[in-house]
Amino acid sequence: MNPKLLKPYDPKETEERIYKLWEESGFFNPDNLPGDRKNPFTIIMPPTNANGSLHAGHGLVMTIEDIMVRYKRMQGFKTLWLPGLDHAGFETQVVYEKQLEKEGRTRFGMEKNQLYKEILDFTLINSKNIISQIKKMGASCDWSRNKFTLDDDIIKTVYQTFEKLYRDGLAYRGNRIVSWCSKHQTSFSDLEIKDEERVEPYYYLQYGPFTISTSRPETKFGDKYITMHPDDKRYSQYKDGQKIELEWINGPITATVIKDSAVDMEFGTGVMTITPWHDPIDFGIAERHNLDKEQVIDEKGKLLKIAGEFVGLHINKARPLVVEKLKSKGLIVRVDEKYKHIVHTCYKCGTIIEPQIKDQWFIKMKPLAEKALEKIEKGEIIYIPEHYKKITVHWLENIMDWNISRQIVWGIPIPAWYHEPKCIPKPGRENEISKCKEIIVSIEKPICEFCDTDYMQDTDTFDTWFSSGQWPFATLGFSNSKDFKEFYPTDIMETAGEIIFFWVARMIMLGLYVTGKVPFKTVYLHGLVLDAKGQKMSKSKGNVIDPLLYTSKYGTDAFRIGMIVGNTPGTSLALAEDRIRGYKNFANKIWNIARFVLENSSHMSDMWENAIKNDLTAEFDELAKDVTFDMDNYRFHLAAEKIYHYIWHRFADEIIEESKKNEKIKPSLLYILKNSLKLLHPFMPFITEAIYQEMYPGGLLMIEEWPKIK
RNA sequence: GGGCGGCUAGCUCAUUUGGCUAGAGCGCGUCGUUGACGUCGACGAGGUAACAAGUUCGAGUCUUGUGCCGCCCACCA
Q1: Which of A33, A464, A694, A708 has the fewest CB within 10 Å, making it most exposed?
Q2: pTM of the model
């Protein structure tokens, strides 16, 4: 017997050796798998953000997906698990900015190319680290197909999609109000905004004959329209367009009455002034009535000239001063000191979102969402757990246009070109000069036919989710690659429930739009991994669990099965260290079972092993059937628990104990051990493979056939 | 304001279409093991399944309501 087996199980030595064995077999790559495998099984791994190291959530992703893939591989499918890394635009830039801060530097004022290059280097270093960590988790993914969101072919696909959207009128450049973070100096989509409840003073102000109310008096300088609902009888004496002279913050102004049904009659006094540049509702009213829009606050959050004496002040500093001035002019009617309301903040830094009007690229989402809804409602995509379907449908039904422009360096540049404002037409082309103003969407820099002026490329980059939203078909080489034809649509998208809108819903929409097919047939969503006390992990709380710490302490197999047992899809998991430790004992138990069985089976041949049929093997087959059923229904937590329970409390405690007294049982042990290893392999791949190597040198459990079910 | 989850043993959670004395891990108690066991085994304590009503031969599981806890969405200035 191999002396290794005589010692307790040593995960460190084993895991490295076994992973190498698998990798060198080439069987992570579906093209190398033995036998005639007609049916593909595909999972595209959610690309890991290349800005840090693996956290516990990644540990769960790698475990669940590896279980699915190993199971299907053993069942004879042509399995592809395609790994990848994400440049993670804004997220990564924020991480890098923090690093710059530590060095006393800042991205503002930095040469763009220099910053880009530095972040690229940063992600490349991280990527290497992350890949080695994913391997430590035992992930049997095809590294030969590994993708990065900034690979040339991915960017090419993203550009093609954008061009198609533009041609179809679904991507448009709009001068619209967007959510702006004055700290990060970029706009966001609606999903990156966090609502926060605050209690602040609320001011009722005298505005001519009206009383208006606001929590932000420092934004009101330019308010020169007074709006009310057209049906509001209280104000029926005022006509739309009527001018009213009144005294305002910085002196007398002429206000214009506007009637618009967006005004809520029930709220406050039923009248409000509008600040179209910095408020979405007000912007809507201004658009409908073709009103002036004036910027009051600049991109850094400071007041502009329109604020008069307050010019240059940051809005936070300006508020008390403006209130003071309003008070001295007698314009404050009353103050509600404890007004509870919702403010929008940057999800990253908590800075108040200051809406601004900007030229940005938007995607018209309604048409895309309708197609997605149709497919989802037809059941072409199965959600696990099911309630995520409802959540998705609800979101899709109320979808708004998607702002995909980001004012950051780290990302895929938007391939749109604009003409400089002034141009001199080429001789004979004077009549066509208006065509110069057209926006050109193209990868290559366009050359103007009509004049000699240069085109300038859009300085923004895409929202990172715009590129990752195309991940399933982009990674497979859309549109005419062999992989795309063979592996698309993919089978399962397994990811965190948290990013169902950010990523999953968008993949469905973009996948359908570009390829005409759903990108995956099943969505499996796991919950959050929390700390042992059930608290959300965060760096500031200092309760972040490093999965690699646990794998090195207890072995990867123990970590993996510890994350699975008792963890149902969609629900969050409190990761207690004791739990993992318990499964380390289990690993050792299996190791010892193997030692005992092998010590007592030296006289057995394979033929004999296969010939056995009795009550014990029949009982095992029943278990295998049960477990297979659970696997097919994504109940990995049940499957794992049943195998665990069988191996320890039936096989070891009873069958093996009995065999010490009853020689007749011994011939069954090898059968049970071998097939138990198969059932357990997706969950605990290292130890099962290591034992299998002792039993059948030269074989490979990873590609062994899953127990047949009658 | 709208929506979605959860409430089961001291802790963390299971319990597939309603059906045998509601289970596991950790923790706890007693006893025993050092020739498969970095331990393990045997036995045990511990639950009115948030609460109330209903449907049913039968409900942790279905319906309704109530109460907590959590999450998501939302242009009430």
Answers
A1: A708
A2: 0.94
For residues A689 and A661, the model is more confident at A689
Tell me the CATH class for A186-357: alpha beta
In sequence order, the 6+-apart residues with CB closer than 8 A to the CB of A649 are: none
| A177-to-A278, A295, A401, A430, A538 alpha-carbon distances in Å | 7, 11, 12, 35, 33
pLDDT digits (tens, 9 = 90+) for A414-452: 999 998 877 778 888 777 777 777 899 999 888 888 888
Supply the ipTM of this predicted assembly: 0.91
Across all strands, nucleotide nearest A638 (CA–C1'): B14
Pick from A651, A647, A665: nearest CA to A604: A665
The nucleotide whose C1' lies nearest the CA of A274 is B77
For residue A36, which amino acid is it? D
Query: What homologous superfamily is domain A553-703 in, according to CATH?
Result: Isoleucyl-tRNA Synthetase; Domain 1 (1.10.730.10)
What is d(CA A373, CA A55) in angstroms, rounded to the nearest whole number? 33
Domain boundaries, chain A: 33-170+364-415+458-526, 186-357, 553-703
Residue with nearest Cα to nucleotide B38 C1': A8
Look at strands A225-228 and A332-346 and give their pairing. unpaired
Alpha-carbon distance of A159 to A461, in angstroms, equals: 12
In the CATH scheme, what is the homologous superfamily, with its name and number, of domain A33-170+364-415+458-526?
HUPs (3.40.50.620)
Round and report the angstrom distance from CA (A567) to C1' (B15). 13
Protein-covered nucleotides of chain B (CB closer than 7 Å) are 3-6, 11-16, 23-27, 36-42, 72-77
For the CA of A557 and the C1' of B53, the distance in angstroms is 48
